[in-house]
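We modelled the chain as a single entity of 501 amino acids. Its sequence is:
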Amino acid sequence: MGGGLLVAGTTSDAGKSVVTAGICRWLVRQGLKVAPFKGQNMSLNSFVTREGAEIGRAQAMQARAARVEPTALMNPVLLKPGSDRSSQVVLMGKPVGEMSARGYHGGRQKELFAPVLACLEELRRTHDAVICEGAGSPAEINLRRTDIVNMGIARAARLPVVVVGDIDRGGVFAQFFGTTALLAPEDQRLVAGYLVNKFRGDVSLLEPGLAMLDGLTGRPTLGVLPYAHGLGIDEEDGLRVSLRGAVRESVVAPPFGADVLRVAVCAVPLMSNFTDVDALAAEPGVVVRFVDRPEELADADLVVVPGTRGTVRALAWLRERGLAAALARRAAEGRPILGVCGGFQVLGERIEDEVESRAGAVDGLGLLPVRVRFAREKTLARPVGEALGERVEGYEIHHGVADVRGGEPFLDGCRTGAVWGTHWHGSLESDGFRRAFLREVAAAAGRRFVPAPDTSFDALREEQLDRLGDLIEEHADTDALLRLIEKGAPEGLPFVPPGAP
């Protein structure tokens, strides 16, 4: 049985995903066979494995950090919110139904514990180390009874736990102490130490506080990771992450041609796989921003309508905001629009939905000759094809079935004038196709923009993952992390009662 470690966090977006990826990359560089794991994930950013299973994109990226192929074992339960109170439950990569939060935590979650634990055990049997990521905070005591992703899985598998805190938010000492103190004694015995994330400044000024924290809890801080820009890769907690990581308010790299290219992404409700635009933001001379007002489309050379878990809701939102009318004017003027998955569906003529929204027949924006019918079975695929003379790879995650009735074929969708639509996520990560597409956009927009001839999105991602591995290697106590992975939490860790100071 291979070793393991659980990376928990004091809050959502404390940095669990990137720290887990960094530890995976550092370990694989030490010659170990490593796998990531997250028993239960809640995210609208998902990915399709080669066997056709849907998992969180964060786990797919962590698998890449570990240099292994992602599988459903790495994220056995995925929750995809459809509203504030309900989510689609995806088990072992396949949807098994919609459930309210109360219904899930009231009983269904307990049923999933055995398969989640079995997946972890299988990964530990076949790998030297499994680095697990928690969800939210382990100190969400209202959910502890049904927990299958934080201390529940840690206790069942006897995993040592390292708690990550985001010092850039402030209050990290209180977060570390409070998180530990709220845990039951049996859970506390597994909390082996802390990792400070996103620190700016002189570490020596922090050291007295770290010493006091050790004195109060009996647990060391195993590293202080500096703030690093541009490492919010494929995280799951919402648009705010992408706004920080991918959106350029100014061009970081100078354009290869004479002009920059401006891309506006409609921030539709329940936006899914907004990571599709990361490849555009990686191009020198391309500025990407998320928008929610029609006037923000005025200077855009390309408008992207991204995927969504609520197609009919997104369609209504576009109309209410005045964005639908602005998109129609763009199409009439021959100004480029790209719709991806749910965004492709809203650009069509008609939607028949008795599955997602149960709204029945709804008129689309009518910008593409497409009619969409929602099927109960979800399409999960990894297509390969050709567009604009270039090879393209992508992945599909949708209930909508498109009946294309005209236009030019485009990645199993279609193109009419300067309006493109496809169900394929990830297509813009294919470098040759992305450059060809941007040349077409620039020509239609009248821009003297030239795509950089050597930008490799794959190489940029590898560079980011290596930077994460470097952060762990250079700023964490790697000897202590290895001991935890190999031997578990040390014996005799003290109990920290609430209010102990």
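As a brief sanity check on the tokenised model: The domain at 254-451 is CATH 3.40.50.880 (Rossmann fold). The longest helix spans residues 101-126.
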